[in-house]
Every structure is written in structure tokens, then in C-alpha cells.
Design brief:
This protein is mostly helical and 79 residues long. 68% of the residues lie in helices and 5% in strands. Strands 1-2 form a two-stranded antiparallel sheet. The protein starts with a strand and ends with a helix. The model has no long low-confidence stretch (mean pLDDT 84).
């Protein structure tokens, strides 16, 4: 890799180093990023429990699950 004036010429390397150096020098930013990540994790866990309940876990066998899904697809497809 060709280096001019102590800077790599590859733009991807320059962008990566820019962000890496920025994250190393953060003071409040690091704390804020941790807060953002914790909020996202909590949000997705709560949203998954509320909006995506496990309907198929009440069936014991794979055949019962298939039967339920096929009946629901047929029932919802017919007017």
C-alpha cells in the first residue's frame, strides 16, 4: 500500500481510521452509544414479546404445526 505524508491512499482505510480514532477519543460519546445500544436491545426484546408471540409453541409435534399453518392460510385466503 502506498503511503503519502503518513496517510494511506486507500479511501476505505482512511474512513475506517477516521471512525476508529474518533471512537477512541470519545468521552461522553461512548456512554451515549452504550445507552443507545441498551435501549435498542430492550426495545427489540419487548417488541418481540408483544408483537411476535409464539403461536406454534402450543403444538407438540411438527405435524400439528403444519396442519395449523395450512388451515390458517386457507382460512385467511378465502373470502
Amino acid at each position: 500500500m502506498k503511503v503519502e505524508n503518513n496517510r494511506p491512499c486507500n479511501p476505505l482505510v482512511r474512513v475506517a481510521r477516521f471512525y476508529i480514532d474518533g471512537f477512541r477519543q470519545m468521552t461522553w460519546g461512548r456512554t451515549l452509544w452504550i445507552l443507545i445500544l441498551v435501549k435498542l436491545i430492550i426495545m427489540f426484546v419487548v417488541l418481540r414479546m408483544i408483537f411476535f408471540p409464539r403461536f406454534l409453541s402450543r403444538f407438540d409435534t411438527e405435524g400439528e404445526r403444519r396442519q395449523y399453518v395450512s388451515e390458517e392460510l386457507i382460512h385467511r385466503a378465502t373470502p
